[in-house]
Predict the structure.
Amino acid sequence: MNLLSIGGSDPSSGAGIQSDIKTFSLFNVHCLTVVTAITGQNTSSFGMVEPVSEKILKNQLKSVMSDFKIDGIKIGMVYNSKIIKALHHQLRKLKVPIVIDPVFKSTTGGLLIESSAIKDFQKFIVPLATIITPNKFEAEILSKTKINAKNTPEKVAKIIQELGSKNVVITGIETKNDQISDFVLEKNNKYFISGSKISKINHGSGCNYSAAIIFALAKNKSIKESVKFAKQFTYNSIKNAKNLGTGIAITDIQKYDKINSELSDAINKFIEIKNIYKNIPECQTNFVYSKQKPKSIKDVLGISGRIVKAGKYPVIAGNLTYGGSKHVATALLTMNKKFPEICSALNLKYQDVTIAKIKKSKLIVSSYDRSNEPKNIKLKKSTIEWGMKSAIKNSKKASDVIFHKGSFGKEPMIIVFGENPNNVLEKILKII
């Protein structure tokens, strides 16, 4: 896959095209670059901006577009009207996803666009966008409207959408309970995507966010899936930000973990299943995914807390962590030892109606009776391994579902297994 980053050069490598090169390389993507301006900045101050000439800008675009198949484009800093118009002329007929990150001001205070060019940005750049990702400050500039009780994020997003962007994501809207939300306006849909707030000033999170979105879009993910993926990716980059210079911390992009990405996507899909809260047991739900040939629960990714019920809504309480699950991870490890292709699992509430659907399905089902549990196993207070071994002892094929009816002080349970998280979800949709 080839993704094109169009933007400014940041010598600190905290933002701009240098940041995008790091991000795309992490995703195993080839990053093409077209430089619009050279900046002089570091983690504590902003110096000069020198835009490239229209001639070299066009030559850069021609060079990459004539030689490479481009799967997606991210546009960041554009600086002046000449650059804006040249980009519009070259890109307006392309049939690839384009993400616009309207960077108007650097974290250290430098202006990244001439004030006289904002009108041309609205007219020529915004209409190119598959998604535009302004933060609150940038959204207010583009819409000429302050976000407040009267002018909601939805109202402001609609103004920006009317400028020509197919989809609008306004980032960094602070809400209650230390949550920070992104408001998403699609053509026929609108919603907030919320996450935990990290009170840390950083350099590069906006670039990480928009780069992650164009990667997801180029992988044919939906708008919602792309934004959720980007939000989690950016959260991790902020959480791991490092003080490499004497000023603001630079976001640190950890090695891309495919297991983490796939499980995170599946968890988001799981909690959106209609009435899924009815299937969450008293001990709550965990969703796990292991590395190949796992040796212990430290090789199994799971939620450090659980997926819990909050009224009629499931809530993810905790972060994805290797070793984050004990019960479901142990069940998976036991299954994986006999059937190495099984690498994911999720537990559900035991209900007679669910068992009836399972038995009517074409899924392979096993069970075990906890009343037969040996006393020495009970004393260990960790009996899941014994139960799983009992259930699959004579099995020649991996079970899709294993259940038990509980015992004194032990809640009955259903565990669904699969080769990967999406495989587990497919089975869950057949039985709930």
Q: What stands out?
A: The chain has a mean pLDDT of 90. The two ends are 38 Å apart (CA to CA).
